[in-house]
Design a protein that fits this description.
The chain is of the alpha/beta class. The chain has a domain of 125 residues. The protein is built from five helices and four strands; from the N terminus they run H-E-H-H-E-E-H-E-H.
Length: 182
């Protein structure tokens, strides 16, 4: 049984992907890539996006914040749960129960499905989120999926220097307020 694109990408990002890029039966090329299929950015056989940016083709959503991950964690939680249900304590408890080590920039964490059935992920990016977005979209295409099935959101809201749950509890009220005001 094959891996879903989300699992392939998570395996690539977390470093558990050594089997993915090796040659597999039924594919030409010892590195796992088929000659002539991976030439450029746009694959004409891929689904074309609709004019509406919230296309029904979207299967996954990734929130990226320009901090250690606190802003992205709050945005993902607000996406998968009703905003009035979210309190600082509930958010911290939800993160702890899931075993999320959100303060490690560059790691992609799954938050869960939202009300529309879209799987939500979040990630902290210390550098430029646009570079990470371009790299991930390229990896998605190399994995054999349409980059149009992902919605990547670069957040303005961030909490730099928040690296522990205690710091998170202090910074979270400001983050929640900034997201609710938008």
């Amino acid at each position: 049984m094959g891996m879903t694109i989300e699992k392939k990408i998570l395996a690539l990002v977390t470093g558990r992907s050594s089997h993915f890029f090796r040659g597999r039966p039924g594919r030409s090329g010892k590195d796992g890539f088929s000659p002539g299929k991976n030439r450029g950015w746009y694959d004409s056989s891929a689904e074309r996006p609709s004019q509406d940016h919230r296309s029904p083709l979207i299967h996954s959503k990734l929130y990226m914040s320009g901090d250690e991950g606190a802003g992205a964690l709050v945005a993902a939680a607000l996406d998968i749960r009703h905003p009035t249900e979210i309190s600082v304590e509930a958010l911290a408890e939800w993160g702890r129960k899931r075993g999320v080590d959100w303060s490690r920039p560059g790691r992609i964490w799954e938050a869960g499905p939202n009300h529309a059935g879209v799987t939500v992920y979040f990630c902290g990016v210390v550098g430029d989120p646009a570079i990470v977005e371009r790299a991930l979209l390229h990896i998605i295409q190399l994995a054999g999926a349409s980059p149009y099935s992902w919605e990547m959101i670069r957040l303005i809201q961030r909490a730099r220097g928040v690296c522990s749950w205690e710091d998170f509890m202090d910074a979270c009220p400001l983050l929640l307020r900034s997201f609710r005001e938008v």
